[in-house]
Amino acid sequence: MGAIGNAEWTGVRLSDVLDAVGAPDASDLFVAFTGADEVDVEGEEASFGVSIAMDKARQPDVLIAWAMNGEPLTPEHGAPLRMVVPGYAGVRSAKWLIRIEVRDTPSDAPIQAHDYKLFPADVTSDTADWSQGLTINAMPLNAAICVPGSGESLPAGEVRIEGYAIAYDRRVSRVEVSVNGGRDWQQATFTDDPEAHWGWRRWTLDATLAKGRQHLVVRAFDETGQGQPERPDTMWNFAGYLCTAWHHVDVLVE
Amino acid sequence: MGAIGNAEWTGVRLSDVLDAVGAPDASDLFVAFTGADEVDVEGEEASFGVSIAMDKARQPDVLIAWAMNGEPLTPEHGAPLRMVVPGYAGVRSAKWLIRIEVRDTPSDAPIQAHDYKLFPADVTSDTADWSQGLTINAMPLNAAICVPGSGESLPAGEVRIEGYAIAYDRRVSRVEVSVNGGRDWQQATFTDDPEAHWGWRRWTLDATLAKGRQHLVVRAFDETGQGQPERPDTMWNFAGYLCTAWHHVDVLVE
């Protein structure tokens, strides 16, 4: 079916399967997926179950897939069949798919009902009303430094810094890297297809590092000019989800 | 044609007009709009001209409009015909429309070519390569406190704080208000239709203010969990565009 994110997927469109069985298409419906795997939820075994809204389910790049990058799926990747729900948190792309159900309500499986919910900072696990949290689906803007790794020792001079940025259904328009803890910023260069959709946008920057402990930072902007929050404490939530503050890496330059 | 943002618009879909004249539909094309108004660009008179990409132009809520909220357009609002390009910077919704053109390239009118471009912080008006700036179209996540106004004096006790948030094509999922400069946050309540698209999402919060100079702050999150950057200096650009940091209002409580 072509490239979705950073892989080539082979499968059938979920929307074609829904049409083939005459499933209704109202935008207030949900499509639920059950996997063959059992998950441990607070000490109880439960079937892996998640759901997505019908409008997302009908998008043409939501697939029931059986091959990735030209090879049949391996067991680890969900063989024989798995969902591919681009841009959404990986949890919605159910593996080892055994059941698809059109429902009036989201899946009531614990993974859908109790996990992957975003709450404000003043809510705790004791006070959370799970029906009120924001269901985490689409992913916010984020960027990370992959090379060098945190704590690495490097020789002084020019160093290649590499990483990725991602912006759900938007284009990443700009990636900036600081080698002095955020005081000054340099523009990174994208190293892959600017038209690629849903996936990581990889970038690189050759920067000169002075001797000593250096503090590298990355921040991305999407096509609307949207930037990332600076500090993780501005997005604290008790479950620890979606920390998309600027990513920091400390290195020792010798 | 129904509600778009915070108004009811009457007009014809741009896509229907493009179809009626047999315009091509390739996604690498642009649709340019010329207005009857002349604008002053660095001392020279020029026609108002802008453009949008064909994919946006073909969206069903991009209109050529002649009435707003059931009344014919007034001159100030662009009579007799204007563009309505939802979610985009207002500059793309050309007023006093006199010409629509399908082009291989964006409009070369000065407004499109030289204005509304976003540059990194290290670029100045002297060093800007206008062909390299990000064309400002879709608007990033933002929120503002409208009431009380900055510098207002208020009686101590409970105060109603009001404002709006906006998130381009996404839903605003949460608005938080601090009445102590950002140390603690309270959840605002939305006061309009959560399904409304493209427009402001209005919110309100009844908060108790202590006597003295108080520092109110608002921040919004969209449906992906995306938050706003905290400080304006993290998004500085020489033209002063798209400052979407947390909005602050100082009041004196007596």
UniProtKB/TrEMBL annotation, chains A, B:
Moybdenum cofactor oxidoreductase dimerisation domain location: 135-252
Domain of life: Bacteria
GO molecular function: heme binding; molybdenum ion binding; molybdopterin cofactor binding; sulfite oxidase activity
Pfam families: Mo-co_dimer (PF03404), Oxidored_molyb (PF00174)
Keyword vocabulary terms for this entry: Metal-binding, Molybdenum, Oxidoreductase
Database matches in InterPro entries: Ig_E-set, MoCF_OxRdtse_dimer, Mopterin_OxRdtase_euk, OxRdtase_Mopterin-bd_dom, OxRdtase_Mopterin-bd_sf
Cofactor(s) needed for function: Mo-molybdopterin
Keyword Oxidoreductase: yes
GO biological process: sulfur compound metabolic process
Domain called Oxidoreductase molybdopterin-binding: residue spans: 2-109
Protein name as annotated: Sulfite oxidase
Organism: Stakelama pacifica
